[in-house]
Design brief:
The structure holds two protein chains of two kinds. Chain A is mostly helical. Chain A contains seven helices and no strands. Chain B is flat. Classes of the chains: A mainly alpha, B mainly alpha. Chains A and B meet through α1, α2, α4, α5 and α6 of A and α1, α3, α4 and α5 of B.
Amino acid sequence: MPPMDSIDELAFPIAAGAARSAQPSEIEREVMDLFEQFRNPLLRYAFSFGIPVHDAEEVVQEVFLSLFRHLQSGKSRKNLRGWIFRVAHNLALKQRYANQRSCDKAASDWIPEEHADPSPNPEEHLSSAQRQRRLLAVVQALPEADQGCLRLRAEGLRYREIASVLGMSLGAVSISLTRSLARLIRADGR
Amino acid sequence: MSNQDLHLSDQELLLAADGELPLRRATQVHAHLAACWSCRSRMAEIEATIADFARTHRQTLDPQLPPISGPRALLRAQLAELASQSEPSSWRRLFQFAPSVRAAAVLCAGVAMAALAGGLLLHHFSPGRTNAAVASLERTAVPDRSLTPGATRSVTVSDVCSMPHEEVIGDVSASLRQEVFHEYGIANARAGDYEIDYLIAPGLGGTEDIHNLWPQPYTSRTWNAHVKDALEERLHQMVCEGKLDLSTAQRDIATDWIAAYKNYFHTDRPLQRNSHLESALVAVQRGPSRRRRFPYAEVESSGGHGA
C-alpha cells in the first residue's frame, strides 16, 4: 500500500500569515502536543536500531523539526503518526550507518547482556526476567523487517501505518507479524 | 469460511485480535470463536504473546530513556527559532492537487473499495462496549449546537464544484480530535465507535475548525454517518447543478442535518443502505477518496494496544 499521506488537505489559515509574536503559533503548539504523545515511543523505536540513546534522542528532535516544516508548508496531515515514525525510521537508519562508518561500534546495549537460549523448554520454570530475555533474544534473531513490524506493533501502530513506515504491503505486515508471533509462542513453550 | 469445522489460521486470529479485519469478516470470526474452543485458546495465546512482547519492549527500554523535560525544552527553543526565521508561506492550494498526488491517491482507491466491501466503512470490531458508552453514542447523532454551530470559509460555488465532492476532505489532526472528544466529555472512546465528522462538509465550504467538528457515532442505527454522507453528496450535487444556493446548503446542514435529509430526499426515514452503497461505489470508481473516516484508535497514543 502506498503511503497514506498522499492527499493534500486544506491549508491551515490560522498559523499561516499570522504576524510573528512571542506567542507560539498554532503549529508550534501542535508539534509540542505530538511530541508529548510520541517522544517515548519514537525514542524506543529509534533506540532499538542499536544506536546510542543520545543519538536516538537527536533523531527524535530532528523528526519534530521536520514535522514542523512539514506542517508549516501546508503539507498533508494524513496519517501523521505513520509519517512521524517513517521519518524516525529513516533518520535512525542513517544514524546507524554513520556510526558504523566511523567505526563507532553500534551499541546494541538495549538488549540485556547475556542472550538466553531461545529454545523452548516447558519443564523449566522461567522467572519473568528470564522470559523477557528469551523473548528479546528471539526478536533479535528475526529478520530486520520482522523486528520492525513487531516493534511498531508494540507501539500501537495500525497495520497500514506499519506498512507505510516500512514500505511494505498490508499483507506483508500481517504475514510478518503472524510469523514472528508463532516464533515467540514456540520459544515461550506455551 | 463460515464453516465451523474449519479452524481459523493464526494470521486471521491475529488480524482479529488487532482489529484489522473488515467488519463483516470480524463478525464471522467472532462467531466462530464463540463456538470453537480450540481457536479460542489459540487466540488467547496469540493475544497474551503480543501483550507480553509489548510489555517487555517497554520494560527493557524505558529505564534507559532520559527524562522528557530536557528534550522538551530543547525542542521548544528550536521551534521558536525555526518559526522566527521562516516566513510563513501564504496559504495556497486550497483546491489543488499535484498530479503525482492524484496518482498515489488512485492507488488507494483499492483500499477504499475493500473497506466498502467489508461493510461500507473502515469499521473496527469493538467488543465489550459498555452500556454507558452506548447511551452516550446515541446522544450525539446530532451535534450539540453550542459546541458545534458549524464553521465555513469563504468559497465560491466554482471553488466547491471544481472537484469531486469527496476529494476536498482531509483528516482531522490528532490534537484536534482529542479536543473534540474532550469538549464532548467522551473519555476512553472505544476504537471505531466514533468518527470526528465535519458538520458542514469541506466539500460544502466547511472548515477544520473545532466549531465544525463533532464526534459522530458509527453505531447509530438510523441516522448515522452513512446517511449524512449521502446528504452531503446530494447537497453538493444540487449546489453544483445550480439548484441550490451554497449558503442555504451550509445553513441547512448546520441547523439540523437530519431535517435537511428528510427535506432533500423527500423521506422520513433514511433510504436503503444499498442505494448509498451504490453511490459510494460510483464515487470509488470515479476516483479515490472516501477515506476520511478513520477510527479514533488510529491517532491514539501508543497505549492503544497490547499492554
